Amino acid sequence: MAKKEKQQQEQEETILTPEVTEETQEVPETPEAEQVNPWEEKYNAERDAHLRVAAEFDNFRKRTVKEKEASYGNGKADAVAKILPVYDNLERALNQETSDAAYKKGVEMTMNELVKILSGLGVEIFGEVGDAFDPNLHNAVMHIDSEELAENVIAQVFQKGFKIGDKVVRFAMVQVAN
Fold it and tell me: Pick from 155, 79, 92: which is nearest to 123 by CA?
């Protein structure tokens, strides 16, 4: 009888405690791929488009400012280039011998005023005898062999050079010693 009771007890336990199988085993709930709200998707897309438009506008604004500054510099350089023949003629007039002191004084005053105006515009005049030859600033039209001057030194200036900032308006026309 003890054997029968034992079997009965085991049967009761199996009835009371169900078998644990893969099907009956409780799995803790894991959120499936986060459910994306369609409104949130639309908001993100609109926000992204808005940020792109804002960035494009900022780039446009910066490019426009840069172009405006460049066009002002180019216009100023063109205006200075148109005035340079006047400078050249005044320089030739100053180099001519004259017995009329008032005439010479008037030409000197005109030249000084023109140089003052050019300086006010930020124009730098370059190309002096004795300066080192720089192919980025000078146009060598002649060479001379001279023992008095060092190599690649300007021996004579035919036309002065002019530049505004880093932009060369006119290259200096020079003779270079070798």
Answer: 79
pTM of the model: 0.64
Tokens (6 digits) for 172: 């200096």
Q: How many C-beta atoms surround the C-beta of residue 136 within 10 A?
A: 8
Note the CATH architecture for domain 51-177: Roll (2.30)
Consecutive H or E run containing 178 = none
Would you say 171 and 138 are in contact if contact means Cβ atoms under 8 Å apart? yes
Any idea what DSSP says for residue 132? B
Q: What is the dihedral of CA 155, 158, 162, 166, to 10 degrees?
A: -40
Query: Can you give the pLDDT at residue 92?
Result: 94
Distance CA 164, CA 141 (A): 23
